[in-house]
Specification:
The structure is a homodimer of 417-residue chains. Chain A is α/β, with parallel strands linked by helices and 417 residues long. In chain A, the strands form four sheets. Chain A has a seven-stranded parallel sheet, sandwiched between helices. A four-stranded parallel sheet of chain A has the order 5-4-3-6, sandwiched between helices. In chain A, strands 1-2-16 form a three-stranded antiparallel sheet, with no helix packed on it. In chain A, helix 14 links the parallel strand 12 and strand 13. The N and C termini of chain A lie far apart (54 Å). Chains A and B meet through helix 10, helix 14, strand 13 and strand 16 of A and helix 10, helix 14, strand 13 and strand 16 of B. Strand 16 of chain A pairs parallel with strand 13 of chain B.
């Protein structure tokens, strides 16, 4: 029953994707303009559906953080619509020729970007993802199968109706956006095994969801994993700059994946730097954990256990380790980090370049906060998420990362001998 | 026991990959020169090991095709060594900056190619893959875990010894190349679940092996699937050119994935073209299957069943269908094809461009044989295989496709507000 529904919707998305595959930019933008217009017109219906979700969530005793994520209001609806207009303004990623090779036999071999096809998005509480992710997928010529958080099911259903009405209005198959309309968790397992219909699954959610999907998916997955991010303050660092970067990376928004969780400090400056940065962090309410050397320099810090070094807190906590130098810092990050975003603060050009080269993470920084790992901040225009895997896309994923490529070959009768 | 061995070797590869991550081109090339030299010097030992594999294979009753694939001789050993020298001559794919974005806040965001890390290769009979795949992986800065066909285990073991001796000679960890030295098939299942250690699995083999790996892998996989390739002869085609392309695509090497398996012919030229091309194909020993219209035009052809349209024969068989025009041809290819390599023969520029745009395959051709889908023929220098999936790499995979990227960000104290 549920199996038939999920398989049927995946097939519907696959079939509809053919209509988007060769869609012109003008037509895709007209579609997105219709989505923008319809969102703004339907704010009452959206708020009504959202209030039903909020009521159930309150009855179920959801935390205030989760309730906030779930909540839409006029302003947030306006932001969703504005997000769609931003996607309209972005250049079409499809049809770009990235490589042209002319062969001795006169074959012209080129690589061209094309849509991925049928994309499955699995996400949790925030209902705005329904619109944000669909707008990006559609602009890149992909049809999309959505599975949102069960708390937001009424809101998501209403938003999907808007998307499908816009598709119909523009003469495109409504199947370009399908929605798994059930709170049954079994649906996730069924969805990630539709390898005949779906080209990729992009999961956005917590550690457990991601691990479950990696374990069970037969559809290729682009993993959006954890961020156990580091700032290493080198011996030659400008300490004012280092303090500003460490505090920003930890405190500005501690609940997100590009926030710093670990501070590594060169032993030669630890005595001077650690007490002052610890003071600033504490002022901001940060709990400090430390290795032995750090404990001696930061009175009242808690001893870090071995588990701390691998942990993503997503909270006002930082663990501090004093290291002998650049090599130890790099080795620590590559060993314990999650390969998301890591920064060095240094006055040495050579150390900066070595750090960039040797740290194996999606984003590596010299003298800047890890908080910039983001599609907008990197100038990609928008993002569907931040990939922590190596295949296909790594780091913030923009429109370009929602495409793949094919080889197109022009000949005049060539055969192989 | 076996589980510990596979996990241990995967970990060894992962650890060793750090040494290759920042290896200079000069050093990687010195390593490959040592491999080349050692292969040429060890031909006697290689032939000896190979003769033991051949003896077991003969006793086990392997077909002459498989025995041929397994067989090494002086000439083939020379070709393996020459292949390594070709990889030495290719440019290093690591460290290329493909994108530079300067942000209003003066951050400089760049995307740089870096090694994938630890690559698992699973392959079948041909022992030359041991050297070819390892050379490409090492040049791209990747460590490699090899699992070859059980028929070739003695040959593969000897070749791996050569690779590891060369690594040691160059002061690199021998763990940069590890070999699953068992014929136990359980090892494949264990290997594809080492997601903590391996960054990607590249399987090369038959349909069953690929399906098994897709089903059970937790490590990301780059699938090398089937080639159910088409040639569509349009109404405006030059019929001499069409005949040459169809015969070449079908006959020149029927056992490979880029050989044509299907011929689609425009109904307006079917009466003229089909009998002559059928004659040529038959001269080359090709069995012709056809739809009703084709059967009427090619006496003695066998009726094609519905199963034929989705089938990869890898043999001297072709199925022919007469279509009403371009749109029907494209729809047929997208529906029944394997999205590998498909060609149109046409005199119409517009039809050619529409075919290139609308056929959703890894390689699409106008007026050339599908047999060119190959890393060497496309000018990529070499190939580790031909990907039929959409994520990461699609079509022939060269050195560049054995890398991934990271964002490197230069700042001067930027924090996020």
């Amino acid at each position: 029953m549920l199996e038939d529904e999920v398989a049927g919707k995946a097939r519907s998305v696959k079939e509809a994707s053919a209509a988007l595959y060769t869609c012109t930019s003008a037509r895709k933008n007209a579609l997105l303009r219709a989505v923008d217009r319809r969102i703004r017109r339907a704010s009452e219906a959206i708020l009504d559906a959202n209030s039903r979700d909020l009521e159930s969530a309150r009855l179920a005793g959801l935390s205030s953080v989760l309730l906030d994520r779930l909540t839409l209001n006029e302003k947030r609806i306006g932001q969703m619509a504005a997000g769609v207009r931003e996607v309209i303004a972005l250049p079409d990623p499809v049809g770009r020729v990235s490589r042209t090779i002319r062969r001795p036999n006169k074959l012209r071999v080129q690589r061209m970007t094309v849509p991925l096809g049928a994309v499955g998005i699995i996400y949790e509480a925030r209902p705005n993802v329904t619109i944000d992710a669909s707008a990006l997928c559609l602009k890149a010529g992909n049809a999309v199968l959505l599975r949102g958080g069960s708390e937001a099911i009424n809101t998501n259903r209403t938003l999907v109706e808007i998307l499908r009405a816009a598709l119909t209005e523009e003469g495109l198959p409504a199947g370009c956006v399908e929605f798994i309309d059930t709170t049954d968790r079994e649906a996730v397992l069924l969805m990630i095994r539709q390898e005949k219909s779906l080209d990729v699954i992009i999961p956005r959610g917590g550690r457990q969801l991601i691990a479950f999907i990696q374990e069970h998916a037969s559809v290729p997955v682009i993993v959006h994993g954890e961020g156990n991010c580091h700032v290493f303050v080198d011996r030659s660092a400008d300490l004012d700059m280092a303090e500003a970067i460490v505090v920003n990376a930890k405190v500005q928004r501690p609940s997100v994946c590009n926030a710093a969780e670990k501070l590594l400090v060169h032993e030669r400056i630890a005595r001077k730097f650690l007490p002052r940065v610890a003071g600033k962090l504490r002022e901001a309410g940060v709990e400090i954990r430390g290795d032995e050397t750090a404990l001696a320099l930061v009175p009242g810090a808690v001893a870090a256990t071995d588990a701390d070094w691998g942990m993503e807190y997503l909270d006002l906590i930082i663990a501090v380790r004093v290291v002998a130098g650049l090599d130890e810092a790099i080795a620590h990050i590559n060993r314990y980090g999650s390969h998301h975003s890591d920064a060095i603060v240094t006055g040495s050009k050579g150390h900066g370049e070595a750090f960039l080269r040797e740290v194996d993470s999606a984003a590596v920084y010299v003298n800047a906060s890890t908080r910039f790992t983001d599609g907008f901040e990197f100038g990609l225009g928008a993002e569907i998420g931040i990939s922590t895997q190596k295949l296909h896309a790594r780091g913030p994923m923009g429109l370009e990362e929602l495409t793949c490529s094919k080889f197109i070959v022009h000949g005049n009768g060539q055969v192989r001998t």
